[in-house]
Amino acid sequence: MRTDTPQTIYRKDYTAPSYLVDTVELGFDLDPARTIVANRMTMQRNPDSSRRDIELYGEDIELVTIRLNGKTLDEGAYAIEGSILRIPDAPDSVTLEIETICVPESNTTLSGLYVSNGNFYTQCEAEGFRRITYFPDRPDVMAKYMVMLRADKEKFPVLLSNGNLVEEGELPDGRHYAKWEDPFKKPSYLFALVAARLVCQEEQFPLADGRTALLQVWVEEGNLDKTDYAMQSLKHSIRWDEERWDLELDLDRFMIVAVGDFNMGAMENKGLNIFNTKFVLANPRVATDIDFQGIEAVVGHEYFHNWTGNRVTCRDWFQLSLKEGLTVFRDQEFSADMIGTDTGRAVTRIDQVRTLRQAQFPEDAGPMAHPVRPDSFVEINNFYTVTVYEKGAEVVRMYQTLLGREGFRKGMDLYFARHDGQAVTCDDFRMAMADANGRDLTQFERWYSQAGTPIVQAETRYDEAARTYELRLIQTCPATPGQPEKLPFHIPVAVGLLGKDGRDLPLVIDGQPKGSTAVLELTEADQTFVFSDVPEQPTPSILRDFSAPVILKHGYSDAELVHLFNHDSDPVNRWEAGQRLAMARLLKLASDIALKNPAADAPNASARTAVLEQMNLDEVFVQAMRAILVDESLDPAFREQALLLPTESMIADQMDVVDPLAIHMARQFVRADIGVRLRAELLAQYQANETPGEYSPDAASIGKRALKNLALSYLCAAPDAESLALAERQFDEATNMTDRAAALGALVHGRAPVAPDALQRFYDEFQSEALVVDKWFMMQATAPTTDVATVRELMKHPAFTLRNPNRARSLVAAFCTGNAVQFHAPDGSGYAFWAEQVIALDALNPQVASRLARAMDRWRRYSPALQEHMKKALQQVAGQGKLSNDVREVVSKALA
Ligand code: PHE
Ligand code: ZN
């Protein structure tokens, strides 16, 4: 942590490294209180650089000695300024030997070398390697690593690093060693070591070229009953990369290690992926369907990085989306292919759209908005965002939409052919796509350079006499910090036209038949497309499969939306029509409630309840929901998605002044009214979608459980005694965590009298399962009955600690981001709590603190009275003398 003014780093200031590293030999004498790191590296002056000084980075490490070509450098021969160690006028060819000391046990940042539950782990992305040794810690410096680990054999029987184990043996004093060699050059952020008491599930796995690889999943002893799914997901990932992209595992050994203290989801270190336990450990008793899906996706994601990230890496951190957007796209495609059916694929796509709307669109419209390839940052750790990851994946997906699957594959092949072993840029990727397909993708670059979510306004006109249908598309993009004006994007807009019978009309444009879905290329600010031979006034289905990350506006009538909801052949737009129907009602209700009590900062709940009592959901909407609910020709997974209402935060995004209580009441009202009006149908679906027999996390079973549990939650939203009894019975009898947690959630959110008792029993049963205890905290944190005082009480629970990121997120962050009504309490108590926790966390772990800090991103969208409180809380954090760059960047951008 530094207290000097944080510096902004600009993409345009990139310069090549002055020296390149050929080989690195690292020796670790591991001791939690005092680890000695010996680093010998051979370096050459970089012919592409005009500078003659060696620039190394180091943070929070103690320099013991530094030797250059065998001679100890005295203090005059180098300079340390902040985290930079500079050796001026160095010779062209250099061997540097550096010895440093670090203290893993007091490293609470979980970046660099740290201790978790008595074991050693590392995390080096983005800039953690400099917390281990002095090094040109930047991704365009790629070197070969040889690593010697020495540690107490009793306490740390397992010693792992990247690549292949080349030697191991005993040392005096009960210590032992292991030597690892990574045959591939890599940037320092991919370095990893583990020294721990762990056990593994392992397997020899045949690769496409006839070799076999040793696969291992390493966990703490008590967790060996929770590694099967991760192992299976790893095997599926390897196969999928071979089959879909012809990409093979390039190592003889591939390891996954699970650690309980981890800042993010997982890390793709070469051959030694280190994972948050949340994305490894699962069995039916402790993990939900969503957990299983998360494991498959994250195991895939990290494995796929081996090609998109490790073999071809980023030139600098502004290019982060080069590897992350592409790898998220790959893991999304993997998850979809693993389901294999068209609706299964569509359901994964709908999930992606929900994530974008829930998290990325707000980011793109807030004070931290940044392009997929940012132009500047203060702290790179703040840019591991939904924009870089999820919007980045959308950008990659648009290439595939524009070029076709085959064209995209050609682009990928060319990208690897050109850049294997290199550190490159987003432009290099775009050029590979363009060159492999003979296409000009110059304008497409704006997806990388311009922040903000484009708005596409659609207007239509049918000419009966001419049998033509005009679709006029007008694109705009709101201003974002530092970018007041935007130029038009290159937007693929997939369009279909539905006839009166609900079927797709054959499309003809400029005399060319286009099938039932045409991908229009919108490149101008205002462009009109004309369909010919259109026999009747159609209903347009625009942006099929969510073909671009934009906001589509069109003045649909209810009748058109119901038509699309009932018939659209594109499942994503079918779902979308239902979302539009629901959103219109939710917004109307919320604004009626808000208007009834304009003093939104002193909401009078009973006056508002009175409003609700006069309200009624219209039959058009209820009937539309009913039709989908009972349509047995539709997958349960799709029906569940179609019946799920937009979230409170999505509703908030549509309001001029956000009124959290009005939104919550409106949404609760709709849920309850559906629960009452569709009671018989919901009960029938509840029963029809039981999944008896042994638990299996296959897509069909997951879909059934999802629909069943959605039905339960609607029934309990009313909530009558009978429904709550149903939930209670499910809680008692469930044999898997999905049903167990869903029932408990229904009881807690339905304020069932038995809820406190059920919570206690749940805790008693699972108190030794950290990931389940996280669920227990989270369920309470997000219950609308849980106020700040209750959260403070929960923080006193013996199982609570701010030091463990999963735990801190499950209570503190879950409350601040997932319990809008209580967080935005009119007295500002939620914001004061937020400020306190951000400050407390920042002293331990700036990365986790900084994520929490972002809960306040959109404070300017609330009422003036709430804004006052929020501003005060932000200023309180900003006024702290000692603050990490991470948090300072977030709060100062919020206040700017
Ligand atoms: N690179 C990791 C991933 O996306 C994420 C990560 C970033 C993990 C920084 C730790 C620290 O898979
Ligand atoms: Zn990643």
From TrEMBL:
Out of the domains of life, which is the source?
Bacteria
Annotated ranges, domain Aminopeptidase N-like N-terminal: 73-190
Q: Which gene encodes it?
A: pepN
Q: Which organism is it from?
A: Massilia norwichensis
Pfam families attached to this UniProt entry = DUF3458 (PF11940), DUF3458_C (PF17432), Peptidase_M1 (PF01433), Peptidase_M1_N (PF17900)
State what protein this is by name.
Aminopeptidase N
**Domain Peptidase M1 alanyl aminopeptidase C-terminal: residue ranges:** 558-896
Mark the transmembrane ranges: none
Catalysed transformations (reactions) = Release of an N-terminal amino acid, Xaa-|-Yaa- from a peptide, amide or arylamide. Xaa is preferably Ala, but may be most amino acids including Pro (slow action). When a terminal hydrophobic residue is followed by a prolyl residue, the two may be released as an intact Xaa-Pro dipeptide
